[in-house]
Amino acid sequence: MKRRLNTYALTFRLPIIAWQTLFFVGPLVFVIAMSFFVVRNFQMVETFEFTSWEKMVTRDYVWSSYRYTILMAALAAGLASLLAFPAAWYLAFRCQPRTRQFAILLLIIPFFTSYLVRTFSWYTILAESGVLNGAFGLIGLGPYTLLNTPVGTLVGYLTLILPLVLILQTVTMANIDDRLIQAARNLGCSPARVIRTVILPAGKTGFVIAALFAFILSFGDFVAPFYLGGSNPPTLPILIIDTTKAGQQWPRAAVVAVMMMLTLFTIAFTAIMYAYRKRASR
Amino acid sequence: MSKNGKFIQTKRTFLKTGLASVALSAPFVNRAWAETTELTMLGWYGTAEPDMVGAFEEANNVKFVPKYYAGGDNMLAALAQNPPGTFDIIHTDAEYAKILVANDLVMQLDPNDYPMDDLLHDDFKSFSGHWDSNGNLYSLISRFGHLGVSYNKDVLSAEEASTYDIFWDERLTGKVGHFDWHLPSLGQMSLLVGNESPFDIDDAGWQAVQEKTLSLKPQVGGYFDFGGTFSGLKNAEMLAMVGIGDWVTGILERDGAPVSSVVPKEGGIQWTESYSIAKTSEKTDLALKYLAYTMSPEGQVKTAQMLGYPGHAVTKAGRAMLNEVDPAEAQRSHQVDGDAQDPITLINEGRISYRDIPVQQSLEDWNDFWSEYKNA
CB under 8 Å to B62, separation ≥6 — which residues? Predict the structure, then answer.
């Protein structure tokens, strides 16, 4: 039987389709096309040449940045997931619903302030003459160089992603049937085994999505590696900025952008497949 | 008039109030009557701030609309990404002015409109890149400064900082910062390896620059933009900086930070800024008037004192007025006759190279290496 066009449903679907086409697919196609343009006399010329691709993929520093960016984003996503877990577990299972709501509100509040401002505030904390080293000094330690290092970059990434991961993990765990946990405990499972055999499998989708968001946001972040990491070494977003600054090489920057998007598509696709994969029945 | 707590408006009070209102609002009416003209300036940060353009704005009923950039490539990018006619005045570095001239982006100027004979140095009168091969002027020199070793005075003495070799000192491991732009940093490395013309070097010279620069990597704490450079030096995260000079440390010094800059024995690099008028500007009369203003003694004092970052006056009259109205700043920036670090004396002694774009390599080669260095 031929399906009739449901205009009612279409009314609600069209805006998001139009939005995504205009502001995601359109720019994406343009960026891909731009990666085949060339720059002559500081002017971008629309053509179809592989010059920029050839230039960028044969440069060691591009791959060096690529590896470093993936490593740092993965580290940030992993760290955020680990750090958030105990707090999310407490909020989901141990505290009153009202406390949980209040905690989630508190976790949202950081987003009211500009990420750039929050990042700059770390200067006073991480500097060698800052709060943290001051505290270390009281117990005879330090000072440690934290700014302009990968540690600084990680702190910046966590500033961006930790509240989000914590919220997503809390919501995920709050939706796990508490009776499953009680049953596991009654059957003699240790807390660690409850986490491994009940909580992690039951909340797998939420945990993976939270980590994925953390990875995506860190992978594309320019602010933390630039201002707290001192561009030393630079990540891919910094490389994009450097490339555009140098002789207006927008096509080469587009190559890096396409490389980043392909990476994110691959990782997001794999993660989502894993998150929604059902266990084989035994 | 108030009577029994009520306000009663008589013909006399009405007229009095009306006349007083007209008198009080006259200046505003006058200003609003003549419509304010907007002049858009593409320039380094600070060039269109009130301390620089406020007096001119007030005198000419103009409002400057700034579009700031950092680094000549960014300036070219801004020009390419905006439709023709977006910018009226372009404030740029001399080495990029030549690209503007070569690409026919700026209008020709009449040197007779400016006090060229009053310029402090003969080199300034025919500054490379400001004139075309036919001797036509396109870009007007406005200020300059020198790049050398910028350092923390609590850690290094001026004598210790008087060589680029200090960047390799073990006290500075992890504490050497770079202003994130290849030209000044690599230019300084070029001077250090003995290239007389730091930007006009052959393959062997370029190879030596790369090797020397890469050897500095273990000392490097970071690569910074405008803000990062200031805060890095101010909070002593960076104890020495490559590729900058008094234009950064001067501001921090004014605020009492223990930092300074010195032109080392290997020589310094001069940044030179100029003003051009976009060929597509529709407000050339006003733009020309502003260019003339920047060359007046008053305009020159303002460029020397600019809050964004200080520079040196290029005219004798400007320098004389600076010494008269702000002797402290004149002395701090060595713009005093007889001072050993007097920027004009340094040029005369042959210790200064004018910053340029690479002559025998492409900008792309230098930038490629810069990216490689950052990732090393």
Answer: B36, B37, B38, B39, B53, B56, B286, B290
Sign of CA dihedral B335, B339, B343, B348: positive
Q: B341: distance to nearest CA of chain A, Å?
A: 32
> A27: cis peptide before it, omega within 30°?
no
Chain A environment of B182 (Cβ under 8 Å): 246
Q: B99 and A65: CB-CB below 8 Å?
A: no
The pTM (predicted TM-score) of the whole model is 0.80
The CA distance from B115 to B317, in Å, is 10
Strand B259-262, strand B62-69: pairing: unpaired
Whether residue B260 contacts residue B151, with contact meaning beta carbons closer than 8 Å, is answered with yes
Mutate which of A231, A241, A243 to disrupt the B interface (most B C-beta within 10 Å)?
A231
- The ipTM estimated for the assembled molecules is 0.78
The tokens describing A118, both together, are 């929050």
Instruction: Identify the band that residue B2 occupies on the pLDDT scale cut at 50, 70 and 90.
Output: very low
A226 Cβ neighbours under 8 A, 6+ residues apart: A237, A238, A241, B225, B228
**Residues from chain B contacting residue A233 (CB–CB below 8 Å):** 374-375
Residue type, A258: V
pLDDT digits (tens, 9 = 90+) for A85-133: 999 999 999 999 899 999 999 999 988 989 999 999 998 899 988 999 9
CA distance B227 to B232: 8
Which residue on chain A is closest to B173 by alpha carbon?
Answer: A145
Chain B residues lying within 8 Å of A68, measured CB to CB: 375
